[in-house]
UniProtKB/TrEMBL annotation:
Pfam families per the UniProt record, alphabetical: Metallophos
Organism of origin: Bacillus suaedaesalsae
Signal peptide residue numbers: none
Protein name, per record: Serine/threonine protein phosphatase
Domain Calcineurin-like phosphoesterase, chain residue ranges per copy: 1-174
Species lineage: Bacteria, Bacillati, Bacillota, Bacilli, Bacillales
Coiled coil: none
Length: 215
């Protein structure tokens, strides 16, 4: 079985859908998206709806991970108002939900069940990676956690694939054996996917130019 891993989407529903229709072979590839489905782009509610449909239809072959933007939206609805999230992009996301007439709280419940990582003997996939400085990389509100980290990654003996920190092109770090595939789809960049073989080796990168309907 091969793997098709896709970076930060940030509300770019049409861009993501285009990429899957052109490049995903669901008979031969496990699809893994490494978090940040929402915010920034124009189609966050539609993106979450589509993600939930995909996971429901291909539960053994489709995995969505939790990113820091999902974490912040969860915090906003389950604790006190998250003013940082609201100020940065949450107000716009909530407006999109209102226009789409979609239930935020149902999506938040789904987000709470998203895993923080996916791994096998060769791959470790998370939103921001295992940091050298992390005492507990799975403590979600820690700055070095797998949803927030922007520091040097640890070499864990597996290929790490991450997003979270935008880069102009997919970026490889030899010391940690890691690829960053967040190419800023919701800004002036594009969506990146990477195909990996059964032994954790990169086959190819897939570029999806951002659909104008998502900007």
């Amino acid at each position: 079985m091969r793997y098709f891993i896709i970076g930060d989407i940030h509300g770019c529903f049409h861009t993501f859908k285009n990429m899957l229709e052109k490049h995903w072979n669901h008979n031969e590839e496990i699809l893994i998206q490494l978090g940040d489905l929402i915010d920034r782009g124009k189609k966050s509610p539609q993106m979450v709806e589509y993600a939930r449909e995909l996971h429901g239809n291909f539960s053994e072959k489709v995995f969505f991970l939790r990113g820091n933007h999902e974490f912040e939206m969860i915090e906003h609805f389950t604790k006190e108002p998250n003013h940082n999230w609201l100020r940065q992009c949450g107000e716009e996301t909530l407006r999109q939900y209102e226009v789409a007439n979609r239930d935020c709280e149902s999506d938040v419940k789904w987000m709470k069940d998203l895993p923080l990582f996916w791994e096998n003997d060769y791959l470790f996939i998370s939103h921001a990676g295992i940091a050298e400085e992390a005492s507990d990389p799975f403590l979600e509100d820690d700055e070095y956690s797998v949803i927030w980290n922007r520091s040097r990654l640890k070499n864990i003996g597996k290929l790490q694939i991450i997003g979270h920190t935008p880069c102009r092109n997919p970026s490889y770090d030899e010391n940690s054996n890691s690829w960053n595939i967040d190419t800023a789809a919701a800004y002036s960049g594009y969506l990146t996917g990477v195909k990996i073989d059964s032994l954790g080796r990169v086959i190819e990168f897939v570029r999806g130019n951002t659909d104008l309907r998502d900007k």
